């Protein structure tokens, strides 16, 4: 003897009289391109921000010989400048603003700054206001070299370090998340129908 149908509704997963919804298709392959582009952008941002952060230590407005003779230089006036002296020499320098004729006061640095490149090692010796930018620099004779460049700014340096860490981290994590989610959906969903 057959059983009568149940008197209560049986859930079927879709409204009565309608076919089941088709499964969602896998995402477009362009999402892999977006994720990969964000990862590449993270690497480029890390390199670019690192170079920008160190630019205060690497830029040079002028290079003069510490030979006891006055040297005329033209430097930027967009911020304080620093004298970088060779570590192996104890140079002393005087700077005169050629437009005003006055000696430029030098201010000892409050921290230890050092920089190196293939041509030598230097220590930050003094900060000064570039004034007109048209200067005469005389450094004691020692056969060494003195560099003049932008004075490192601590605030900009800290912001640069934080940006160098967090901007690439954010871009890289977004890129990886897109790649992982797209990969999972690409594997678990059916292929899109081919056009035509």
Would you give an account of this structure?
It is a single chain. This protein has 196 residues and is of the alpha+beta class. It has helices at 30-58, 154-188; strands at 62-66, 70-74, 81-86, 93-97, 107-108, 114-117, 120-128, 134-139, 144-150. Strand 6 and strand 7 (120-128) form a beta hairpin. Helix 1 packs antiparallel against helix 2. The relative contact order is 0.24. The model has no long low-confidence stretch (mean pLDDT 82).
Note the gap between the termini.
Answer: 53 Å
Tell me the domain tally.
2
User: In DSSP terms, counting alpha (H) and pi (I) runs of 4 or more, how many helices?
Assistant: 2
Mean pLDDT: 82
- Decide which structural class fits the backbone: alpha+beta
| Shape category | rod-shaped
Q: From the alpha-carbon coordinates, what is the Rg to the nearest angstrom?
A: 33 Å
Strand content: 25-35%
Instruction: Outline the low-pLDDT stretches.
Output: none
Question: What structural keywords apply?
Answer:
196 residues; 2 domains; 2 helices; 9 strands; rod-shaped
Q: Which helices and strands appear, and what pairs or packs with what?
A:
Blueprint: H1 30-58, E1 62-66, E2 70-74, E3 81-86, E4 93-97, E5 107-108, E6 114-117, E7 120-128, E8 134-139, E9 144-150, H2 154-188
Antiparallel strand pairs: 1-9, 2-8, 3-7, 3-9, 4-8, 5-7, 6-7
Helix pairs in contact: 1-2
